[in-house]
């Protein structure tokens, strides 16, 4: 009798266990079905999720057959990343590529004699430097193309699609124009104190700057002007004797970098000049900008020096990171890491502390290198290629 009771208790325990297992299985099945249905409704694309990258937290794989990717050029290419897409400008065309498989998302043939492109946000602004044509595109379509009455000198684009450009007419007078993506001119002003060599517009499309070159007392002087859209006169002017301006760039903070051949300045609030490196204290070797348009700057203390230095200079004008180099780099780029191209290798460093991260072998045919996730995208001759760890 006692043995029958024990046997019945054992069977009841076993049945309870099996019922619990069945309930767990049904719960998993129901959750899975509802999850799949929800993703179906939301049209989740796992392939696009795989390719989404946020400063190295997610990684993507590249199709082994996609690279090297052949370009339609015989004179080299400029490569940038815009919204995690590859943008490649050549003398014949601009191509927007998916980095994982090199498939063309958007392309246009410029036909420009000397195409020069600047990018911000999703926008690509291309000018025919010395010609009369300009165009604005995003990474999927053309916004406009326009033919000007005068030859265009230089230009820049804001994240909201506003552009600034300088033109010189037949009377040898220079004019600067700010225009929105609907081709409406927001500001137009003439320049009388020299030849315009650089322009910049901030993230809001409202703050502008331009640099002119003139001669005073037998010396070349670069004058930096800051002006806001809607103003009738400059906010400020800064003179830099015997300084050749290499670039003007607004950080996302709306402060302005002035990069000279032998100096670096930061203009705060359109009117305060912070001298990061005084004229003559550095020799500019290379420079580029982070995703927030903050400066990564490579310099030597004198021309042809074997010792070089790379600095991350934030938008407050403070040198945050310094790395000493024993070899002169050919090119620098930066996102969450500094990427330096040398004649025989690509080396990456931490943006925040300068720690060396990885080294990738290459040869001297490589002309530029950009890091995206764990991959190094390079240009060489007529190719875009990928270096992997």
Give descriptors for this structure.
single chain, 389 residues, mainly beta, four-stranded antiparallel β-sheet, 32 strands, globular
Tell me about this structure:
- The protein is mainly beta.
- The chain has two helices and 32 strands.
- The strands form eight sheets. Strands 1-32-31-30 form a four-stranded antiparallel sheet, with no helix packed on it.
- A hairpin with a 5-residue loop joins strand 14 and strand 15 (207-216).
- The longest helix is centred in the first third of the chain and has 41 residues, at 2-42.
- The termini are far apart.
- The relative contact order is 0.08.
Strand portion: over 45%
Give the fraction of residues assigned to helices.
10-25%
Q: What is the terminal separation in angstroms?
A: 73 Å
Q: Give a count of the beta strands, DSSP E runs of length 2 or more.
A: 32
| Gyration radius over CA | 28 Å
| Biggest sheet features | 4 strands, antiparallel
Principal-axis shape equals globular
Instruction: Give the overall pLDDT as a whole number.
Output: 87
Secondary structural class: mainly beta
Ranges with pLDDT <50 over ≥5 residues? Answer: 36-58
Total DSSP helices = 2
Strand order of the largest sheet: 1-32-31-30
């Amino acid at each position: 009798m006692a043995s029958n009771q024990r046997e019945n208790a054992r069977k009841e325990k076993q049945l309870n266990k099996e019922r619990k297992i069945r309930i767990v299985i049904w719960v998993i099945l129901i959750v899975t079905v509802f999850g799949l249905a929800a993703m179906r409704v939301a049209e989740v694309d796992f392939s696009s999720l795989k390719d989404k990258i946020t400063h190295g937290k997610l990684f993507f794989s590249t199709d082994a057959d996609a690279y090297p990717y052949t370009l339609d050029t015989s004179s080299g290419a400029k490569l940038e990343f815009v919204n995690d897409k590859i943008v490649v400008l050549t003398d014949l065309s601009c191509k927007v590529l998916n980095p994982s498989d090199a498939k063309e998302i958007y392309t246009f043939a410029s036909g420009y004699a000397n195409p020069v492109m600047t990018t911000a946000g999703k926008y690509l602004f291309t000018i025919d430097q010395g010609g009369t044509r300009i165009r604005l595109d995003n990474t999927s379509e053309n916004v406009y193309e326009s033919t000007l009455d005068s030859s265009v000198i230089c230009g820049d684009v804001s994240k909201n699609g506003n552009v600034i450009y300088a033109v010189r007419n037949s009377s040898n007078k220079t004019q600067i124009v700010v225009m929105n993506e609907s081709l409406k001119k927001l500001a137009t002003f003439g320049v009388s104190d020299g030849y315009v060599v650089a322009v910049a517009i901030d993230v809001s499309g409202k703050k502008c700057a331009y640099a002119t070159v003139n001669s005073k007392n037998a010396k070349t002087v670069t004058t930096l002007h800051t002006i806001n859209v809607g103003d009738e006169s400059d906010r400020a002017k800064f003179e830099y004797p015997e300084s050749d301006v290499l670039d003007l760039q607004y950080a996302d903070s709306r402060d302005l970098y002035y990069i000279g051949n032998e100096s670096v300045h930061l203009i705060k609030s359109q009117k305060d000049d912070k001298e990061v490196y005084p004229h003559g204290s550095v020799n500019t070797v290379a420079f580029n900008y982070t995703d927030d348009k903050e400066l990564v700057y490579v310099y030597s203390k004198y021309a042809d020096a074997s010792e070089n230095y790379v600095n991350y200079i934030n938008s407050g004008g403070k040198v945050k990171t310094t790395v000493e180099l024993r070899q002169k780099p050919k090119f620098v780029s930066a996102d969450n890491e500094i990427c330096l191209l040398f004649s025989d290798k690509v080396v990456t460093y931490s943006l925040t502390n300068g720690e060396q991260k990885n080294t990738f072998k290459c040869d001297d045919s490589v002309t530029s290198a950009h890091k995206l996730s764990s991959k190094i995208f390079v240009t060489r001759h007529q190719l875009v290629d990928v270096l992997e760890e």
